[in-house]
Amino acid sequence: MTAFRSVSSCSPNQQRALFGSVLLSGGTGSSPSLRARMQRELSALVSPTTKVKVGPPVPCGAGLSGSL
Questions:
Q1: Rounded CA separation 16/67 (Å)
Q2: What domain of life does the UniProt record list for this protein's source (predicted)?
């Protein structure tokens, strides 16, 4: 999983913060089951003491300005 590899490439001190604040964006990020799936899969890959939190999709700037 790309998200896991990206966070794991950072220093151990930063990994806890990054795993605790994963945000989804873009069209695929708004898929209803993606948030739960990423939460489940990332949690299975990290230490049980590492808290994983996948937040809801954030609005994209281009899509947001196009709706105005």
A1: 36
A2: Eukaryota
Overall average pLDDT of the 36-56 stretch: 93
DSSP 12-57: HHHHHHHHTTEEEEHHHHT-TTHHHHHHHHHHHHS-TTS---EEEE
Gap between the Cα atoms of 46 and 27, Å rounded = 27
pTM over 0.90: no
Say which residue, 58 or 51, is predicted with more confidence: 51
- E-strand spans in 1-68? 22-25, 54-58
